[in-house]
Amino acid sequence: MPLGTRRAIFLGENGELSIKDLTEDYKPVGDQALVKVKYSAINPADLKHAFVGIYGSVTGYEWVGTVIEVGNSSPFKVGQDVFGISIPGHQRPLYLGAHQDYLIADGSQTTWTVPKSMSDEDAVSVPMAVQTAADALFNTLGFGFSAAGLDGRDATGVPILIWGGASAVGAGTVQVAKAAGFDPIFTTASPRNHESLLKIGASQVFDYNSPSVVEDIKHAVAQSGKKLTVVFDAVSAGLGKLGESSETRSANNTPDLARQCISDYVSADDLLMSSVLPVDHDPAWKLCIGIRPYGDSFSFGGIIPQDPSFPVRMKKYMDWFMENHESFWQPILRNIIVQGAEKGIEEIQRVADGGTSKEKVLIARPM
């Protein structure tokens, strides 16, 4: 199908964002579908992935739109509204980036029909938050969730600290953790966001800007009568550029702050920590991501080995979520909608710099 000339947001080597004119036509094959995008959602990864070696392509991961053409084995039909997440990768094909007017979606792992219970604006924000939470809790940290057919450690009654609860991933993880049985659930956020996080399942919320935040969390853990051994950093802020962390890393980077909240006298074997960016100065942190391609490795600033069961487990959880989300999922983020590529670039930079709080910025079409 001729698509004409259209615009896209392109990510360069050092995090430069630019507008690129695209002229090539996209043709879905096999289980793929050609989608006319309605909205794409902005995530910090849209810019920050350049600093872990993922650049040279149309940026953006989350999208929602309408199917306009399908491959011969696609499960979707022309006219269906679908949403999904694009597979990351260095210099990935142009047709995979979310911040453009048309893209190619796969039909098996990363694309779903929009449920009747969700608006397009809410659906577009689901994949990164839910799948990153699932990867952290049920893959890298090794917990199970029997309702979705996932074996592993029993999360029931296990305390967890989620640093960055008002981020999209953080708010999603609070709800995923609650459904899995973690308790108590401690998280951090600006004071104005505390009430909404308590409503979706957080047990206690702490002001991350407070100079006593670490002491406050440790006191609350002690009051609970349990030991905190499980931490998820949903923002991984202040780490600097991969490979240059000793020069550019902040003294108050969030992985270091979160680790200080762990209970005293916890052995290395009992310590479970996961983060959304590599923490190269502390190997105890395990990297989680929002999408895992099938296989025994994935591309993230180089080829990284993975347990081949991880993408299968992520898919199982997402399938369970799509069937059961109405019973527990509450979209608490405020959608901010902007129009066009120029404004989109401004917002990608703002989001990457940590300029949002309990917000999700969407880019409306046309680009």
Automatic annotation (TrEMBL):
Pfam families in the record: ADH_N, ADH_zinc_N
Domain (Enoyl reductase (ER)): residue spans on this chain: 12-363
Keywords: Oxidoreductase
Key word Oxidoreductase present: yes
Domain of life (superkingdom): Eukaryota
MF terms in GO: oxidoreductase activity, acting on NAD(P)H
Similarity section: Belongs to the zinc-containing alcohol dehydrogenase family.
Stated name of the protein: Secondary metabolism biosynthetic enzyme
Native source organism of the sequence: Knufia fluminis
Origin organism lineage: Eukaryota, Fungi, Dikarya, Ascomycota, Pezizomycotina
